[in-house]
Design goal:
elongated; 6-stranded mixed beta sheet; single chain; 2 domains; Rossmann fold; about 550 residues; 17 helices; Nitrilase/N-carbamoyl-D-aminoacid amidohydrolase; alpha/beta
């Protein structure tokens, strides 16, 4: 029998739109001879629904949508993810479930056993876990239907298991000979390779085919890459879907041969695609059509503008140059050159007179105090106010342009350059910003060479350079990766890299005292294993031992 994977991009809470998409993909699969189609985890309601599942109307609309899908997909069996009422004494009202829709009704329901509570996941907050799972017969096979995390506890792959049970192992031991896994597995760099190796290990060790269908698209800070796969009993990939776009993939369940759709390869290429998809979907799903970006002539704003233009089209991007008293000539000329090559609208709003008025207003209050970072931040906040004024007037979303290195150590201004609705590259370290910019230019050379070559500078005081306040970014990013993503101590970082211990501790102190800023920042797009945001939860008022 032909089985299809419906790799779709749902919108959380859009029951009509998600249902229409599931019905369309199911009918397309049926027209190509498929007898069964699988859709991702919680595809009926969208993932992650978070606290929306606490609303009774959300749960009932979800059930009604699944019943409608069953009626409108005759002639093909459909497996899709949905929320179902919990029947356990857990204090949770719903479960994360998968339903088999057949002959116009919901024929079989299986609920998720392993509910992750690490990184960006908080499913124990919203769902009750299933106590057990059972097989269901289909097309002469005993199907082991699992949901995302249920497949992430294989003892042959992980050095340390997070859960006391392995649902896949239990189902195979009970006679399961075909593993189905519907997922909403978010992307980060190198995640696809990890996922592929893990699922291949299950197939090889249990000697069963493994079918994995993954959600695609951006939802808030998360990007789902799709990259659905089917493995034979030897762990070979025999069918796969595209990365970062919707897709329909078919394979034969007996011969274990299928369609191999091309995926994006390479770290820079995949991260860039994730940023474009995450930006596009955030804008689209939040009902915006245009974006505004402050263009400084620097590398961060240039990369953000290129991503935005790829995401929603250059006609929907407005770049704004805001030169001040310390801006270099290249600040405007490089920004204008970028805007021209990208084909985006470009406006110039000079802030020097506004800045002088600020200083005049504050003169008496500040009398006797030397100029310092206060005046630097005023310039940044003027720019933030102007961008937000344009946002209000044009109904456009401001994209902030700060990178992960700056966000980590607080080299950013609250209500200034941090202003905006989406921080496109705030999970991208500065060194990766340069790599992604060169990758973008290899596709379409729009970022000026001067922007790529000039020393990074906020241009908020005379002859300012980032290295006046920070270590070189190659050093800073190495420290931050070890500390933020891997939780290494200052001593471990110093030893492994040969960095001065005092320097490492200084960087860590900057990270710790910037937590209050990060918790007020716009959401960003997660592309690393540990991004700032709700996947990294630290107290603001705390004393840490460095």
């Amino acid at each position: 029998m032909k089985i299809a994977l419906g790799q779709i991009n749902p919108i959380v809470g859009d029951f009509a739109g998600n249902s229409a998409k599931i019905i369309d993909y199911a009918n397309r699969a049926k027209s190509q001879g498929a007898g069964l189609i699988l859709f991702p985890e919680l595809s009926v309601c969208g993932y992650p629904p978070r606290d929306l599942v606490e609303r009774a109307s959300f749960v009932s609309h979800n059930r009604e949508a699944a019943e409608r899908i069953a009626v409108e997909t005759p002639g093909i069996a459909v497996i899709c993810g949905l929320v179902t009422p919990a029947h356990a004494e857990t204090g949770k009202s719903v479960m994360n479930s998968a339903a088999l829709l057949l002959d116009g009704r919901i024929k079989f329901v299986q609920s998720k056993m392993l509910l992750p509570t690490y990184d960006v996941f908080d499913e124990m907050r919203n769902f009750a876990p299933a106590r057990s799972q059972v097989l269901f017969p289909f097309c002469g096979k005993q199907m082991a239907l699992t949901i995302c995390e249920d497949a992430w506890n294989d003892k042959h792959f992980w050095n340390r298991q997070l859960y006391s049970v392995d649902p896949v192992e239990a189902l195979v031991r009970a006679g399961g000979n075909f593993v189905l896994n519907i997922s909403a597995s978010p992307f980060w760099a190198r995640k696809r390779e990890l996922r592929r190796d893990m699922l291949a290990t299950i197939a090889k060790n249990d000697r069963v085919p493994v079918v994995f269908v993954n959600q695609v698209g951006g939802n808030d800070s998360l990007v789902f890459d799709g990259s659905s796969m089917v493995f034979d009993r030897q762990g070979n990939v025999i069918a796969q879907g595209k990365s970062f776009e919707e897709d329909l993939i078919l394979f034969d369940s007996d011969t274990l041969t299928g369609e191999m759709h091309q995926q994006i390869e390479g770290e820079e290429a995949s991260i860039y695609a994730a940023l474009v998809l995450g930006t596009r979907d955030y804008i689209r799903k939040c009902s915006f059509r245009q974006v505004i970006i402050g263009l400084s002539g620097g590398i961060d704003s240039a990369l953000t503008a290129v991503i935005a233009a790829d995401a929603i089209g250059p006609e929907n991007v407005i770049g704004v140059g805001m030169p001040g008293p310390y801006s270099s000539e290249g600040s405007v000329s490089d920004a204008r050159d970028l805007a021209k090559k990208l084909g985006i609208r470009f406006e110039v709003l000079k802030i020097t007179d506004i800045f002088e008025n600020y200083k005049s207003t504050l003169h008496d209050v500040f009398k006797g105090y030397p100029e310092d970072v206060t005046e630097e931040n005023i310039q940044s906040r003027i720019r933030g106010s102007l961008l937000m004024a344009l946002s209000n007037k044009f109904g456009a979303l401001v994209l902030s342009t700060g990178n992960k290195s700056e966000m980590a150590v607080g080299y950013c201004t609250l209500y200034g350059d941090m202003a905006g609705g989406l921080a496109v590259i705030n999970d991208v370290p500065k060194t990766l910003v340069y790599r992604l910019s060169r990758y973008a230019n290899s596709r379409n050379p729009v970022i000026p060479q001067a922007t790529l070559e000039k020393p990074p500078s906020a241009e908020l005081r005379l002859d300012q350079k980032d290295t006046d306040s920070l270590p070189p970014y190659e050093v800073l990013d190495a420290i931050l990766e070890d500390y933020v993503e891997d939780s290494h101590s200052a001593e471990e970082i110093s030893r492994s890299h040969g960095f001065d211990l005092a320097l490492v501790k200084d960087v860590i102190r900057m990270v710790e005292r910037t937590e209050y800023k990060r918790q007020q920042a716009a959401p960003g797009i997660k592309i690393s294993p540990k991004a700032f945001g709700y996947g990294r939860r630290f107290p603001i008022a705390a004393k840490t031992d460095i």
